[in-house]
Specification:
The complex is a heterodimer of chains A (about 350) and B (about 525). With about 350 residues, chain A is mainly α. Chain A has 13 helices and four strands. Chain B is globular, with a radius of gyration of 24 Å. Classes of the chains: A mainly alpha (about 350), B alpha/beta (about 525).
């Protein structure tokens, strides 16, 4: 068995790869469902029902997709420039922390303006958190995989300290949670009696903006060039270091926005379980979307659907909801396999 | 390195290729190829790039599986499609493009994959001795502890050749082995080849350099468009006949008809700098309009530093660079482009182009910030497509595959010659006044070489001053008006080409005359 590179991977294959990967992930996970003793078909039907089967399920899925779209975008723009941002989780919390600091009453502005300020603050906090590893990468060649990954824990511990101490809400009966965001700082609900909030519009606008940036502007071209061949990019006069630095502000900022949206649209106060790993799942989203900004929206909704649907599946059939994590992880692994097959032809001797 | 074939195999051909056919889609890269190689002879495979030489070699070495045909080694059929089987049968190959691990030492690169992993450490001393023996015997001087990433291309090729010889192969395939060797190294290298052949090795030499083939080979096979067009004893043919067989028509020599040199456009004054292993020491140089100044020298003597300096990648520690009469206070690649410098880099794949990006992206990559091509940060796609289309066509860039894809084709699917044309089209479309060309024809086929030469001469005719850094002395002597030699970071005075001979250049490149000349 050998691999031969395809000089031009066909468009059909590039589109088919994620579909095939998802199919294979579901197929391989059906073994696990069988193991728990539940009928596979019924389980997956329940999953689909739970994800899309009712208006409520649909709004839940979309609500869950909001932070995933934003962290997915944050990861995708960085990966495009081969800036391996594993720190979207930390940037998410960084953004949420900044919004929590400014939005809990210390600072007062009327409704849309306070939201705007909090969004910008979250953006800057997330961007800064990625700018530091990016700066270290450009100046000292420090591996950003290590620094971004480890910064996640630093941020979580800092927030843990703040929530136990200075930022703890005195009304929270001793729970480690921050004060509530003031009403003027909240994102409005999109649909009454659902949890779906205006963050969805923001996330979709962000995806569109990134798409335009990547496709139609010189900054997208610079990012592609730097990601594909930094040495050639430098020779051609593209400011490689500056590209990496502004990419970090963009990518980190998007992940920071995810934190702000989750805080302002859903939770209302900062806790340590604000994210069940949205930052890490963002990596899966970006890879499934093959780093395409509009694909990120689709991939995020898909993965959100798996998580939301798995809850229903768990309730009705007694299948562990951790299965959702397994499906998502399997989808990523199969995606890597399928992308490999789209780029290489398998030959049997 | 002594080879002991069994008595029977003395009469058998060492290597027989029987009816090999290989198709890539619609393209027939090899069409019913028959040839045989005996022990103790050097068989040259001559052909332009794209004639199917490299495909054939890759089939012999097991990288590709042919659609039809058979290969026999000493009468035994070879299991095709397996490099391991080829190696076990005693076939060794030195690739055209160096395939080494940059982050390991020369010694480790040679031992890795050659010695079993669990013996790697115990055999190091033994290996080091053998490599030094081989290197001394062949005149391929190399420091076994040097880090491969720090070596120049020519030196890396030495490592490749040593690596294959270290394995003690019986049939040696050399793909353009002299491309990165210097004239001074070529003769000793050929002597080495002859010595190996006299000890019973069979050598397959792939080349498109006629002179070399005439000089070293016993027999020549000429490939054209995947077919064997001629098979002849070298002593019974001449370069003109071979060139005709190769190209299919007579090649006109470069016609040079230049205006007298004008005012200086590029001046280096006492410039010193250091880049990795290379350095420049008080280099002074002037290039005038209408003039081509050639820089000869053995790889690693400062060519890369000089090219990087004028391309804006390096800043001088000392000295000044004047571009079109103005002193350059700062220097960066973007500034050089802005100043109208046309830069043709040494390595198309690594620095000249971005393989996975499309044709139009590569074409515009130097100038995407020009108001002509961008507006408030938005790329003016229509304008870029139109210009790229026009200029790529003007430079006869041909891309394989679906023509509908056109400008959206990733540039990595192009052949070497077409890649170089993309670079030419990018830098020459602005009618530049200063051109820096570093090894502009390395690895190109005859037709593409002639094309690049024609374009450079035409640019000089239109008024450009050209700095041509090359290791191909024939190229320098036929194109340059004046030639200077780089040796250990020092540049000799540039002497008019008419007053220079190959031998004189060769001596200066070996450091013989440098004190006298400067």
């Amino acid at each position: 068995m050998r691999l031969e590179p395809r000089p031009t991977p066909s468009l059909v294959m590039m589109v088919l790869a994620p579909v095939l990967a998802i199919g294979l992930a579901l197929l391989s996970c059906s073994l696990l469902i069988l193991w728990t003793g539940a009928p596979v078909w019924v389980a997956y039907t329940a999953l689909l029902q739970g994800a899309l089967g009712s208006p409520f399920a649909l709004t839940e899925t979309l609500t869950r997709a909001v932070p995933l779209i934003l962290t997915g975008l944050g990861v995708a723009v960085c990966f495009r420039a081969k800036l391996w941002n594993i720190g979207a989780e930390g940037q998410f919390y960084g953004g949420a922390l900044a919004a929590s600091l400014l939005g809990t009453g210390g600072f007062s502005l009327p409704w849309p303006w306070l939201v705007l300020v909090l969004l910008i603050a979250g953006w800057m906090a997330g961007g800064l958190l990625l700018w530091i590893p990016a700066w270290l990468k450009t100046q000292l060649q420090v591996d950003e995989v290590v620094t971004t990954l480890l910064l996640n824990f630093v941020i979580l511990l800092v927030i843990s300290y703040l929530l136990e101490g200075p930022l703890r809400d005195p009304l929270a009966l001793g729970w480690p949670q921050g004060r509530a965001i003031v009403d003027a700082g909240l994102l409005p609900r999109l649909i009454p009696r659902s949890r779906l909030h205006a963050g969805l519009i923001l996330a979709i606008l962000a995806a569109l903006a990134v798409w335009i940036l990547e496709r139609f502007t010189i900054w997208g071209l610079e990012r592609r060039a730097v990601g594909a061949n930094p040495e050639a990019a430098r020779f051609l006069g593209i400011p490689v270091q500056r590209v990496i630095l502004y990419t970090s502000l963009l990518g980190g900022g998007l992940a920071g926005l995810a934190g702000v949206c989750e805080l302002l649209g859903l939770k209302g106060y900062l806790t340590l379980d604000l994210s069940p790993g949205f930052g890490y799942t963002g990596i899966v989203v970006a890879m499934l979307a093959q780093l395409q900004p509009l694909g990120v929206v689709a991939a995020a909704i898909f993965i959100a659907g798996i998580y939301v649907g798995a809850d229903t599946m768990g309730r009705t059939l007694g299948v562990p909801t951790y299965l959702a994590d397994v499906i998502v992880a399997a989808a990523l692994l199969w995606m890597l396999v399928c992308m490999g097959l789209a780029r290489y032809r398998l030959r049997w001797n | 390195m002594t080879v002991n074939p069994s008595p029977l195999s003395r009469h058998l051909p060492a290597l027989e290729v029987v009816g090999i056919t290989k198709r890539f889609g619609a393209l027939v890269a090899n069409d019913q190829i028959h040839l045989s190689l005996h022990c103790g002879e050097i068989l040259a495979i001559l052909g332009e790039n794209g004639a199917g030489k490299t495909t054939l070699m890759n089939i012999l070495f097991g990288h590709y599986l042919p659609d039809q045909g058979q290969v026999r080694v000493f009468g035994q059929p070879l299991k095709l499609g397996s490099p391991a089987a080829a190696l076990a049968a005693g076939i060794g190959m030195v690739h055209q493009h160096v395939v080494l691990a940059d982050n390991l030492s020369v010694l480790d690169n040679i031992l890795l994959g050659t010695e079993p992993l669990w013996q790697l450490w115990s055999r190091r001393q033994q290996g080091r001795r053998r490599i030094q023996e081989l290197a001394t015997e062949l005149g391929l001087e190399i420091d076994p502890d040097a880090w491969v990433g720090s070596l120049a291309l020519g030196q890396r090729q030495r490592v490749e050749i040593l690596k294959v010889l270290y394995r003690g192969v019986r049939i040696l395939i050399l793909d353009e082995p002299t491309a990165v060797l210097t004239p001074a190294e070529i003769e000793p290298f050929f002597q080495t080849l002859r010595r190996m052949v006299s000890r019973g090795l069979g050598i397959l030499l792939i080349s498109h350099k006629l002179q070399e083939v005439m000089q070293i080979s016993d027999r020549v096979v000429v490939l054209r468009a995947g077919r064997v067009v001629t098979e002849v004893k070298t002593s019974k043919t001449d370069p003109a006949a071979l060139a005709e067989a190769m190209v299919g028509e007579r090649v006109a020599p470069v016609v040079k008809d230049l205006l007298p040199a004008g005012e200086p456009v590029l001046v280096l004054q006492q410039v010193s700098c250091r880049a990795g292993q290379e350095h420049l020491d008080q280099v002074s140089l002037t290039v005038h309009r209408h003039e081509i100044v050639g820089i000869a020298g053995v790889a690693g003597n400062g060519q890369t530093a000089l090219a990087d300096l004028v391309c804006g990648l390096l800043r001088p520690h000392q000295g000044e660079i004047h571009l079109r009469g103005q002193v350059l206070r700062v220097s960066s690649p973007a500034l050089m482009v802005q100043q109208g410098m046309a830069r043709i880099p040494e390595d198309r794949h690594k620095t000249g182009l971005i393989g996975s990006l499309t044709l139009w992206e590569n074409w515009v990559a130097e100038r995407y910030r020009d108001p002509e091509f961008c507006c408030w940060g938005f790329l003016r796609h229509r304008q870029i497509y139109r210009q790229a289309q026009t200029w790529l066509q003007a430079f006869d860039v041909r891309s394989p595959g679906d023509p509908r894809q056109g400008l959206q084709m990733p540039v990595q699917v192009l052949s070497g010659g077409n890649m170089q044309k993309v670079i030419l089209s990018r830098v020459l479309c602005r009618d530049p006044q200063v051109i820096v060309a570093h090894q502009p024809t390395r690895g190109l086929d005859l037709g593409a070489v002639a094309y690049v030469h024609k374009q450079l001469l035409a640019a000089a005719q239109r008024g450009a001053g050209i700095l041509l850094i090359s290791e191909d002395l024939d190229e320098l002597l036929s194109l340059a008006d004046r030639v200077a030699v780089l040796y250990r970071g020092q540049l000799s005075a540039a002497t008019p080409t008419q007053e220079t001979t190959l031998t004189a250049l060769g001596l200066r490149m070996a450091g013989q005359e440098i004190a006298y000349a400067s």
